[in-house]
Amino acid sequence: MQTAGLGTLTTEGKLPRERSDFNHVFIVLGGINVRRSLITYIPEGGWEMMQENDDYEMLRLAMNKKTSAKLPKHKAVTELLKSIFSEEEVKLLRAFKTTGEPLSDEEISQLSGVPKDEVNKIFSDMAYKGKLLKIENSFIIMPLFPGLFEFYFTNNRDAPEKMKRAALAHRELFYAGHHFELSAGKYATFRVIPTVEPTLKTIELNKSIQVERRVLPYEVLKDYLSQTSPYVLVPCSCRTAAKYTGHPCKKTDENFCFATGSLALLTIANGVGREVNFDELLEIMKKAEKAGLVHETINTQEPSMFICNCCPDCCGFLKSVKEFQNYGAITKSNFSPRIDKNLCNKCEICMEKCPMEAIYHHFPHSEDASDDMMIIRENHCIGCGVCASNCPISAITLEKVRNEVPVETQAEVEQKVRGAERVH
């Protein structure tokens, strides 16, 4: 029997909850509410009235319905969708008018005229490969991201030539300007969480700090992660895609990304990733920091369903910020590094490790070399704390300099992203 993929949710095995408890897993993947009644969608004019040549275009439009990062009419988008979905698959996907709303195999069968068993077989295979989500005998399509891109390349179960073709199309789309869609809404979907030990040190040093500068649980990775469980280490979709394009990650070839909570339960049940305990989770996070990776998650106060450890070589969000100064793509942390000039020996490790190239060595002009120092370019710094984690003499600390407060829930993020006035 074929093992289910990351895009499959069953109620068998170890899953202890009803499927309605997984709502928040899919909220950011297109606003799903699995408790609603399944509604059959029949396009105006009937199934036969839809032009076959429009199959991929209709899928593009459906994927755009509930996301601010919309797929444009572009040859790279067509190539991307064709590389992932076969003609047989995309014809059946005509049943879906938007992301996040389930259709059963029976409903799809009624709409398409394809026998239900055949529908289930085709769609289950798509779920196994991460092309869509499966909940029992119902299926859900996703926006490109967060959603299809992550599931497809995390599962990494399609034919290698198809995976490569999809990765190359996605890379072409990025450099065609699609990355600016990441900042199309006024509310960023993702935020940076600063590194583990430097943040804890900041809390210890500032116990008496004024209320508006207090460090809150959603700002502290250790506290943030302790609010949810279990934790599953999964392959990084971005690094997998980058490797297929011939541009492998320059930072690491290890897996550092995590599914948590309900999404972790899904991955455990479906054979993707490896479950770890809390102590191992923190150790892996610290190891990621030493590799120069940035902790990113959904821009909420409540625990996210995933934590990514990102680099600007592979992560579309960080790459967009670094290469194109697209600072609306993510929300910086509320922290900024401070270098103790009396302790700093100008070893330049912080400069080498900084993922955003926000630190440089200012060589002296003065006779006494008093202006020989490392300088932080505040406009380029995202407050990740990688510099502080890698300083061998602890000359760098983190200071809370902002008090940006994210929304409380992932449902609010989805509402913000869908409802936000587009910047462009």
How does the SSE layout of this entry go?
Blueprint: E1 8-9, H1 23-27, H2 55-64, H3 75-84, H4 87-92, E2 103-104, H5 105-112, H6 116-128, E3 133-135, E4 138-140, H7 144-155, H8 160-175, E5 190-193, H9 196-205, H10 221-226, E6 231-234, H11 237-244, E7 257-260, H12 261-269, E8 274-276, H13 278-290, E9 294-298, E10 306-310, H14 316-324, E11 330-331, E12 335-339, H15 349-353, E13 359-362, E14 373-376, H16 386-390, E15 396-400, H17 410-419
Parallel strand pairs: 1-3, 5-11
Antiparallel strand pairs: 2-4, 3-4, 5-9, 6-7, 6-8, 7-10, 9-10, 12-15, 13-14
Helix pairs in contact: 2-3, 3-8, 5-6, 7-11
Side-by-side strand order of the widest sheet: 8-6-7-10-9-5-11
Compute the number of helices: 17
**Approximately how much helix is present in the residues?**
25-40%
Overall mean pLDDT = 83
**Percent range for β-strand residues:** 5-15%
- The SS-based structural class is alpha+beta
Main beta-sheet annotation: 7 strands, mixed
The dominant shape is: elongated
Q: Which radius of gyration do the C-alpha atoms yield?
A: 23 Å
Number of domains: 2
The total count of strands amounts to 15
